[in-house]
């Protein structure tokens, strides 16, 4: 199986993607979509898209992949029921515990674990299967060898094209704490795309220090297929139909054994951030786009002067609706429009003064954009029509025999001809393409009656080819929490003793684990490969248990017979999640994106809330200094400073000899929740809140 999966922010884009050759589309509904700014679909629109997909033999997946708060669970279950009843082929979720409840409500429902669920190793895949998920959308950071291991446990879906998140998915709280807009709730304002400077390593000059290039694995898609990936995913529910169509046609060509050279220019011109990266699955290479944040298109030439005008010598024939971006030294100077053609190039009308040698990049190719939207796919059907006097009208296709209500009369002065019947029935709804043969025998049939017969036939045919689903839903399982508010204290520390309570030891280098004291937990980050996790746990003698930031900790703790402290990375936001964690974990931390009142409503035995100290807002599974190891200053802490002067601590740690980084909020937390307290002292955070700071998201 090689499924090409395309994004759709609205109904039109979904149909464009399917007609361009996508095997499936994924889209959001009006609630619980991780792209809340997309148009998204209501039930009627979803039913139309699902029907359209099914007529082409394709599928439609619905993303209900935001975090769901406790007061929203009934609406979430209603949305899931609606999506499934409207014909969705699978639902994408972030919350495994809500997934388990959905399977109890409707066992035939197909669930895929969103990349927000953070599956990155065998243990995570086992947990997903246990909770009813047949497919996992792997974390973008998962290396190729690990993809192959996970693919032996569950169906795997991998991103091959589109924007990359800076942070490990599901573990980014930057937008929430820096601007009160939760990415986990579909409202990310992309603070990672803004300008920052980092003290040291040559990054002192302000630039797009965290902005990643767009992903484009290109021909490497074959390596993913060899590793066992079954679905190849294009990111872009917020992007235009032209981009989606261009991406689908490019990867359709690659999966069909072609080189994609003919289709690639349309993709580059539709959207290209940073001249692309192959992604972390193939190693960190050309990963960050520090100089230009947005679309840079395709290079078509350089600026020169000709007759006192700006000119670009190029083989590209510029059109009046085309757009260009001018770069100088890799940085954006301005935009430009075409100002007329010459035999060897075109003139430019820029919005700023240009210099000879400036780079000209084509960012809007109006003719290619129009051409890429032309459909390449339809469902071909053979229709036989019989209109004979003395018989009821009849049409046949795909095993359907559709008959009219009344016997046809013999015409006195006019008759329905075979040519008229064939022309009428060729007017079929998309995506059907009808080859029609008609037999006519002296029958009279008014044009309105013929058209009505045709419409009735195609309605019946569509109902046969894409039947509606009539699921039976069981009651949602009851879920109650016993309100037991504890008063324990746990501290995340690098070394030394905690001031009080339970110590969660967080190494700077996992090759050398801190010596544990009685009752200590070992901190495990959200991303570990199977080998890394097993190596660390094999050396964790003396630790009472593990504090883990990912679902994989459920299976890992059981395999190594360790107690589990489910960390804030579990993103527990509702009673189904809290109760589910309480079943498997000795202790668990509620989401740090909940208000104190919301946390209080989820108080139960073993529940903790982050209340003091550092607030980690991002996990970077790459080097923000672009692996210039020979120039590394060896510091554990740097400072990431934004345009408003807010300073965010940047902490380095090592796993398996590789550096990873964490970004912390610009000010420490002091909340005082109504239950046990979790304090993070692993980062040296000082200072007071500055402009725009939000101590706790209320979204």
Name some characteristics of this structure.
699 residues, TIM Barrel, Elongation Factor Tu (Ef-tu), domain 3, 4 domains, 8-stranded parallel barrel, 8-stranded parallel β-barrel, disordered C terminus
Ranges where pLDDT stays below 50 over 5 or more residues in a row are: 685-699
- Write down the Rg: 29 Å
Total E-strand runs: 35
Q: What is the CATH architecture term of the largest domain?
A: Alpha-Beta Barrel
Specify the biggest β-sheet.
8 strands, parallel, barrel
Task: Give the distance, in angstroms, between the N- and C-terminal Cα atoms.
Answer: 40 Å
What's the CATH class label of the largest domain?
Alpha Beta
Estimated structural class:
alpha/beta
Largest sheet: spatial strand order: 1-2-3-4-5-6-7-10
Strand content: 25-35%
Count up the helices.
17
What is the percent of helical residues? 10-25%
Q: Give me the CATH superfamily of the largest domain.
A: Aldolase class I
General shape? globular
Looking at CATH, which topology of the largest domain would you report? TIM Barrel
- Quote the average pLDDT: 94
Number of domains: 4
Describe the structure.
Helix 1 packs parallel to helix 2 (43-55), helix 4 (96-105) packs across helix 16 and helix 5 (122-130) packs across helix 15 (552-559). This protein is globular. The longest helix is centred in the middle third of the chain and has 19 residues, at 447-465. Strands 1-2-3-4-5-6-7-10 form an eight-stranded parallel beta barrel, surrounded by seven helices. The protein has an eight-stranded parallel beta barrel with strand order 23-24-25-26-27-28-29-35. It has a six-stranded antiparallel beta barrel with strand order 11-12-15-14-13-16. The protein has four domains: 3-164 and 213-281, Aldolase class I (TIM Barrel); 298-372, Beta Barrel (Elongation Factor Tu (Ef-tu), domain 3); 379-465, no CATH class; 489-615 and 668-680, Alpha-Beta Barrel (TIM Barrel). The chain is an alpha/beta fold.
């Amino acid at each position: 199986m090689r499924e090409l999966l395309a994004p759709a922010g609205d109904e039109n884009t979904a149909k464009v993607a399917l007609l361009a050759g996508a095997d499936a589309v994924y889209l959001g509904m009006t609630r619980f979509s991780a792209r809340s700014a997309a148009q998204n679909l209501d039930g009627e629109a979803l039913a139309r898209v699902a029907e359209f997909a099914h007529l082409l033999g394709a599928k439609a997946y619905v993303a209900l992949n935001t975090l769901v708060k406790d007061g929203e669970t009934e609406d979430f279950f209603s949305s899931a029921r609606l999506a499934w009843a409207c014909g969705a082929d699978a639902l994408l979720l972030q919350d495994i515990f809500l997934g388990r409840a959905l399977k109890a409500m409707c066992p035939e429902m197909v669930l895929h674990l969103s990349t927000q669920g953070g599956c990155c190793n065998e243990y995570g895949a086992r947990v997903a299967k246990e909770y009813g998920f047949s497919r996992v959308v792997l974390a973008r950071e998962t290396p190729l060898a690990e993809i192959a291991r996970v693919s032996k446990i569950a169906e795997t879906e991998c991103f091959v094209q589109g924007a990359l998140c800076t942070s490990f998915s599901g573990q980014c709280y930057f937008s929430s704490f820096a601007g009160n807009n939760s990415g986990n709730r579909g409202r990310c304002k992309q603070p990672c795309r803004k300008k920052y400077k980092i003290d040291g390593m040559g990054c002192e000059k302000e630039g797009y220090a965290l902005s990643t290039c767009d992903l484009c694995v290109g021909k490497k898609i074959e390596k993913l297929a060899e590793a066992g990936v079954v679905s190849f995913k294009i990111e872009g529910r917020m992007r235009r139909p032209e981009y989606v169509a261009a991406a689908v046609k490019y990867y359709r060509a690659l999966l069909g054994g072609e080189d994609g050279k003919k289709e690639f220019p349309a993709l580059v011109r539709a959207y290209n951030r940073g001249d692309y990266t192959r992604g972390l699955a193939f190693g960190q290479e050309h990963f960050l786009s520090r100089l230009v944040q947005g679309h840079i298109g395709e290079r078509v030439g350089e600026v020169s002067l000709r007759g006192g005008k700006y000119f670009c010598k190029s083989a590209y024939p510029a059109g009046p609706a085309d757009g260009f971006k001018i770069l100088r030294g890799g940085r954006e100077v301005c935009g430009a429009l075409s100002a007329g053609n010459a035999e060897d190039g075109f003139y430019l009308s820029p919005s700023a003064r240009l210099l000879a040698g400036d780079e000209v990049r084509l960012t809007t190719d109006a003719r290619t954009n129009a051409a890429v939207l032309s459909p390449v796919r339809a469902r071909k059907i053979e229709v036989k029509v019989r209109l004979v006097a003395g018989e009821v009208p009849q049409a046949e296709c795909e095993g359907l025999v559709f008959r009219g209500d009344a016997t046809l009369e013999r015409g006195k002065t006019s008759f329905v001809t075979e040519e008229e019947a064939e022309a009428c029935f060729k007017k079929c709804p998309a995506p059907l393409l009808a080859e029609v043969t008609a037999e006519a025998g002296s029958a009279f049939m008014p044009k309105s009656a013929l058209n009505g017969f045709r419409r009735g036939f195609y309605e019946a045919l569509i109902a046969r080819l894409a039947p509606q689903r009539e699921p039976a839903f069981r009651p949602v399982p009851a879920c109650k929490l016993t309100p037991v508010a504890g008063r324990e204290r746990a501290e995340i520390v690098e070394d030394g003793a905690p001031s009080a309570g339970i110590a969660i030891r967080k190494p700077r280098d996992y090759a050398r684990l801190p010596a544990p004291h009685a009752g200590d937990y070992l901190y495990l980050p959200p991303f570990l490969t199977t080998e890394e996790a097993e190596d660390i746990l094999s050396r964790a003698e003396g630790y009472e248990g593990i504090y883990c930031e990912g679902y994989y900790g459920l299976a890992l703790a059981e395999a190594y017979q360790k107690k589990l402290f489910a960390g804030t990375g579990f993103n527990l936001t509702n009673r189904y999640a809290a109760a589910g964690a309480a079943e498997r974990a000795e202790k668990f931390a509620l989401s740090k994106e909940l208000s104190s009142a919301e946390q209080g409503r989820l108080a139960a035995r073993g529940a903790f809330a982050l209340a003091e100290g550092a607030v980690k807002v991002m996990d970077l599974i790459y080097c923000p200094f672009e692996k210039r190891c020979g120039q590394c200053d060896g510091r554990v802490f740097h400072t990431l400073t934004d345009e408003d002067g807010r300073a965010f601590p940047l902490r380095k740690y090592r796993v398996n000899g590789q550096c990873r980084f964490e970004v912390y909020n610009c000010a420490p937390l002091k909340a005082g929740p109504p239950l046990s307290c979790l304090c993070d002292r692993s980062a040296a955070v000082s200072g007071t809140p500055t402009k725009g700071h939000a101590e706790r998201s209320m979204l």
